[in-house]
Amino acid sequence: MHQLFSIVLGQRDLSRAGDLFSLEDIEIKDSLSEALEEMKKISSSSDYLTNDNDQAVIEICITRITTAIRETNTIEQHALALVSLWESCLECNLKTEGKNEDTPHAKIASDIMSSILQNYNKPQVMALAVPVAMKFLQRGNKETCRNMSSYISLVAIAKADLLVNHTEAITKSVLQGNFMLLRVLPSLYEQKPESINMHLTALVELLFSLDQSEQHHLFRLLQITAKHYPEVLNNSLSSLMTHLHDPNQNDSVLTILLEVSRSNPSAVASFLPRLKEVGEEFPSLLGQIAKIYGAIGHTNEVLARSCLAYLVTLLANMDHTFHHVLLMEIKGITDMFSNILGANSKDIYRMSNSFTYVAMLLGKKLEISNSSVIRYWRGTLLKTPFFKIDNGKENGEMPTVCFSESALSQESCHSPSGVDDDTTESFSTPNPCSSTFIMKCSTEMLSESCQENNGTMEKGPQENRDKLWRHLKENLTKVQAYYNAVKRKIPIPDQCTFEDSVRNVIKLHFTCPLKGHYCLYSKSSFTLNSRQPQVWIQIMLIVKQSLSTEPLSISDTSVQLLKSLWDTTHLNSICSFESAMIHAAFPQNKDLDCVLKHLEEVRFFDLFGYSEEMGEWLCFMCNNPEKANVLNQDGQPLIEGKLKEKQVRWKFIKRWKTRYFTLAGNQLLFRKGKSKDEVDDNPIELSKVQSVKVVAKKRRDRSLPRAFEIFTDNKTYVFKAKDEKNAEEWLQCINVAVAQAKERENREATTYL
């Protein structure tokens, strides 16, 4: 042992203890184990608890030794002596005494614990430390247990094998309230399932006591259990069902129920009515719910018919993103019980590209009334937006708002128009971008809201309703009128993904509802990023309200989720959601102008147009079916002609070469010269095109009023047309062809029946 350590520890010389820090780490690194053994003798002496001098000496020596071990990376060399001193603390009192101060031995244990367990990636050290750590979980104070749990979690990541033999001790620690260790159990389950399975029912009951991150780890464990030993969860299903209405948990619960239903469908069959309610409340979960119905439908013919009726109804009314799942589940049941549909049942699935029509044929076979299979309004499939926010998980995923083509829920079960057909036909549609119309509506509604706040609140049965409900109740006609006007100018997105919390960027997804044979967006979507979340949230609320004859309430699910999106975008720091929706009910004229300008900039109107006949925004091909024959004939050009291509991309040197281009099939073909005959060997593959844009204004000059760019995976092309009209023709044709190429690629990647 180094001479100075001998003096300080041998004579308990506190005055020399500080000199230890004047020594180089290299000087003392070989004598640290001896010093630790001497410290163990001192801390185990009978008078240590009352000897302040000895406690101070030990505290200083521990700090110096742990520092030297860390700096010289000699933890393996001294691990045995360090763990021995640590374990000796278990023989003494570790519980907090007096003024919430740690006992002397608790201080030693805490300092050594961090020095040892921060080396969780060193198996040799952890093999010595883990058994002692498990003892501290049962005997240490609360603070020590919490810190210990953090380190044990890291050990589970680096070397879970070291914890396997202590699985039951860790599980019991969790049940005693040490919830931090929940994150360890999923890593141990596959190697030691029996130690956890015997406590699983008690673990499920903890869900009500956990915070969101702790629930996440427990659900991970339950999902693994459901995959490997689903029968263990049979007694816990009722408890799990109570969490289905929690948007933070219902996705995980359904994953568990799906695994159980595949193993033991009869255990889940009794919960089908509740699952149906959850589907109405959270339409984005209907894909998983459909799979559960599909699994239960394999049980017997009675349940098969019941499940089929529900699945067929969903097929007719749900968002296209669920169609393939629904059809697969329906086919799975009818393949098992072929007598339900009778002969030639497989032909039903191939009779139409329209899922709605397939659903009607299935409904007829199943003797389901058409009114329950599909609802029409003025010849158009009833479209009801439901709003669902996915708050993301711990990895920082952003929330999502989805709009599903669904049957009306109980919350919105009335005529979608809010006015009858005659009223709609005779209504003089104002220009939604007109400042007169917007300011008139906004001023009147603001005035009425102010009067209401000044004491003219409605009395009677609804007097306890919220301000938003009263406000919308008095302005249903104005909201409907505004929607009838604005829907022809502004498309309604199918999905909204929150992208960037710093810049308040949302991503909007648009699809085509008709989904014809040559539809550009039946399996994919047009996306754009917007920095105007407030405007889109206003539009979403207007759309939701316009499709119901009853005023919405702040407590309604769809409104609550819009409010959550509002809060997520930090708009609540400017104004609360409710106040904004009351006092600025309609987007301002300048905001709508910005939205329209942005849609033009991203070439949205090249690919979509409003159909007066359908009352929907349809893609170019569904709006112009006569163009399909041209676009889909192999070798038949959609557009061709001369363009100038920029050859060298220097800031001040512009070299343009005239070439002949042909847009046909999935390619934009180059010609070597100006003639049609000299074909280039390197065409642009349209499926590889990322975007097509007009050259940005800041880069334009007098020679570039009609230039546009095509961005691929690894190259950018710059072209110039003969005039702006010709440039617009090329831009629209290229955008349409690119969309169709990507849609075709998506369809080929999807397995069809």
TrEMBL record:
InterPro entries: ARM-like, ARM-type_fold, Melted-like, PH-like_dom_sf, PH_domain. The keyword Cell membrane applies. Pfam families: PH. Gene3D superfamilies: Leucine-rich Repeat Variant (1.25.10.10), Pleckstrin-homology domain (PH domain)/Phosphotyrosine-binding domain (PTB) (2.30.29.30). It is found in: Cell membrane. This is Ventricular zone expressed PH domain-containing 1. Keywords: Cell membrane, Membrane. Coiled coil: none annotated. GO terms for biological process: regulation of signal transduction. It is a peripheral membrane protein. Residues 636-739 form the PH domain. One of its GO terms (molecular function) is phosphatidylinositol-5-phosphate binding. Belongs to the MELT/VEPH family.
